[in-house]
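Q: We require from you a single protein entry containing the residue sequence and its fold in token form, and nothing else.
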Amino acid sequence: MDWGTLVGTALGAAVGVGTTMLAERSRWKRDHSSREQSVKRQLYGEYLAALSLTTHRLRDLRRSPSLTLEDRVRQAGEILGSGGAYGLRYQMLITAPEPLGHMADQAFTRLRDLRDCFDEPDVRADPQWSDALSALTDTLKALRAAMRDDLSAS
């Protein structure tokens, strides 16, 4: 038996297996990156939708003049709790890059500040409402831009 042929065959097999493994690893990385970006895109959209829906519902509640203070406070809490932002906030904190997670947390804090305006006797006349709404709007604008940047960088 010629040892040269045997060594050449073994070397060829090793190169072939190594090349196949590299190609599979590259394909796996590409697929993993694509799935990760898809998960982020969905999570970011759901979080923004939950924040926006909750903001909208709080605005509607503010326009209800016939409610008592206790009813407004209770409903404001229910609106914040039922909007889905609580759970999505924690998903953002573990999924998004740290600076983006911090911005997501900040947006939720601004939303809570808006909800806290309902603790005032007349939220419709409270000057804090405009400040809280403006701060939330600015934070959401910055969050959306950061989300776009994160998705385009992936």
About this structure: The two ends are 54 Å apart (CA to CA).
